[in-house]
Amino acid sequence: MAHTSPRINALIVDAADPERLAAFWSELLDRPVVGRTGPYVWLRREKDLGLGFQRSARPKSDKNRLHFDVSSPDPAAEQHRVEALGGRRLEQYADGGFLVMADPEGNEFCIIPEGPFELDDEGRTDYLG
Fold it and tell me: Using one digit for the tens of pLDDT, what is the confidence trace for 68-82?
């Protein structure tokens, strides 16, 4: 039998309120909620990647070890949209030049430009100008 490499099937985000978090990400990504199974709420699968939210009693307590990068032609406009949906900007990361946001439960994610942008040797950028 030929060896095939595993692939990432889905990203699962722990959530105190998976319905609320799924609603936020559904609106942000324009991916409707398509299912609920036990403690999970699922968004529409796109490009063969699922995105689900799992009920968890443990609150988020530290910086994420993994985060999403969301691309936009206008990161500043997208920031306002995220804030209107219940997210917020995390100013403590502003020195790196990235637009770092948090969803309603505090999970960090970046809004980056759709096109290429420069990084220095320390991993900082200046796309926010």
Answer: 999 999 999 999 999
Torsion from C-alpha of 79, 100, 72, 18, nearest 10 degrees:
-80
Does 128 lie in the same domain as 82?
A: yes
Q: Are residues 87 and 34 in the same domain?
A: no
Question: Which domain, by its residues, includes 34?
Answer: 1-57
Q: Is the pTM of this model over 0.70?
A: yes
Buried/exposed code over 66-105 (b: 16+ C-beta within 10 A; e: otherwise)? eebebebeebeebbeebeeebbebbeeeeebbbbbbbbbb
Could you tell me if 43 and 81 lie in one domain?
no
- Six-digit token string for 105: 């439960």
> Within this chain, do residues 117 and 81 fall inside the same structural domain, yes or no?
yes
Looking at residue 59, its pLDDT comes to 79
Q: State percent of the chain over pLDDT 90.
A: 82
| Joined tokens for residue 54 | 């799992």
Number of domains in the chain: 2
State the pLDDT at residue 58: 85
For 111, other C-beta atoms within 10 Å of its C-beta total 26
